[in-house]
Amino acid sequence: DVQLQASGGGLVQTGGSLRPSCAASGFTFDDYVIGWFRQAPGNEREGVSCISSSGGSTYYRDSVKGRFTISRDNAKNMVYLEMSSLRPEDTAVYHCAADKRPWVSIIARMGRGYHHGWDYWGKGTLVTVSA
């Protein structure tokens, strides 16, 4: 069975750091782009970042550039999202997802705010940033 499980969320103060991780199984991990998405209460799901299958290319939404870093370890089937300088507006449930479409197609869709159509989705982890 395909599984994507995010973990490592928590409660931090403004300016703090967290490092959620995403564990994958049941598919050929290094064939897939992995993305992080988030959804705050009452808001649409939005793309946060994604990383190419090899790990050589990354994408970030403007609001997290310079604060978040995505990485992956294909030997361990893991993806990480290093989050620093956290703000209350970063509060959300964070999900990871996997997709096999070409990289340029994925980042074009993410840049336009499209979050549908990813092949696999995992359960999320809650990140809460207090003011």
Description:
By secondary structure, the chain is mainly β. The chain contains one helix and eleven strands; from the N terminus they run βββββββββαββ. Strands 2, 4, 5, 6, 9, 10 and 11 form a seven-stranded mixed beta sheet that branches. A four-stranded antiparallel beta sheet has the order 1-3-8-7, with no helix packed on it. The longest helix is centred in the last third of the chain and has 9 residues, at 103-111. The protein is globular and about 40 Å long. The model has no long low-confidence stretch (mean pLDDT 96).
What letter string, H or E per element, gives the SSE order? Answer: EEEEEEEEEHEE
Give the C-alpha Rg.
14 Å
* Main beta-sheet annotation: 7 strands, mixed
Proportion of strand residues: 35-45%
**Rough outline:** globular
* Low-pLDDT ranges: none
Number of helices: 1
Question: What is the CA-CA span between the terminal residues?
Answer: 40 Å
Helix percent reads: under 10%
Q: What class do helices, strands and sheet pairing give?
A: mainly beta
Mean pLDDT: 96
Number of DSSP strand runs = 11
Give a brief rundown of this model.
The chain has 131 residues and is mainly beta.
For this entry, give a set of tags:
single chain, 131 residues, mainly beta, seven-stranded mixed sheet, four-stranded antiparallel sheet, globular
Any chance you could write out the topology, listing elements then pairs?
Layout (H helix, E strand, L loop, with lengths): L2 E5 L2 E4 L7 E5 L7 E7 L6 E6 L6 E3 L7 E6 L4 E6 L8 E8 L3 H9 L8 E2 L3 E6 L1
Parallel strand pairs: 2-11
Antiparallel strand pairs: 1-3, 3-8, 4-5, 4-9, 5-6, 7-8, 9-10, 9-11
